[in-house]
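Subject: complex prediction, re-run

Hi both,

The earlier run crashed halfway through, so I resubmitted it with identical inputs.
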Amino acid sequence: MSPSPAEPPAGRAELFRLHIEPELEVLLRVARTLTGSWPEAEDLTQETLVRAWRALDRFDGAHPRAWLLTILRHTNVNMHRRQRPDTVEDVGILPGARPAFGAAVEPTPEEQIVLQILPDDLERAVDSLDPKFQTVLVLVDVNGLTYAEVADLLDVPLGTVMSRLSRARQRVRVHLHAHAQREGSLR
Amino acid sequence: MITALGRMLSCHFTAKRLQRYLDADPAAPLEPAEARRLEAHLAECDRCSSAAADFRSMRWAMLRLSRLVGPDPAAVQRLHRAVDQLLEEDHR
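This time it finished cleanly. Structure:
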């Protein structure tokens, strides 16, 4: 494959280094959420990068993450992953990219106390969710994607993302409260 | 009776918008008037302010959980090397 005469290789490489490579780790994390395993996530990310490189001439330089997530989605479908995109098996090993809740602030002392209590309970609460709710929750709150990025990745309307996210958080909250009442450990 | 109904409607208004308020996602911002009404309600409703506090705590707990284990650095390095190879092969 030879590059277009109007697009010398160095230019394409610079574009790729500048816009695409910085998203590599986010891609890997999202791929982990979609596939349910790190080895599969690595394969999917690598294939996505290859396809992104081939398609780079169609990238307009804006919103690289959204562009890459679309390629990731198509690549995932084409690779016929055994596990569906709405499968997350073990939320405890999922890493994050950026905090959700746009106006990020440091936790208050009260929140820090809650943090000391929650992680195991939280993991159980998230694991208990229906996969389609769990995936949206993890993509937003753990992987740090925006509503629009999740909608594009899962190929569902924005409203569906918002409603699944809201219901997921409500269910996690109910689960945590029920657990706390049993254990007498929260608040 | 009217006060209770008004409170109930205000709680409903807040519940429907609380996630968007907390997320501040660019795709679904609240109107300034909506945000002001919601904040005013949170200031006077224990039930809704408690829900907001819970969601904030859950957010921090999720974030903490996400930081516990990241991807294997070796896997990230392999992917960077794959990018290097991709670009070098195309350049040849």
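The mean pLDDT of chain B is 88.

- K.
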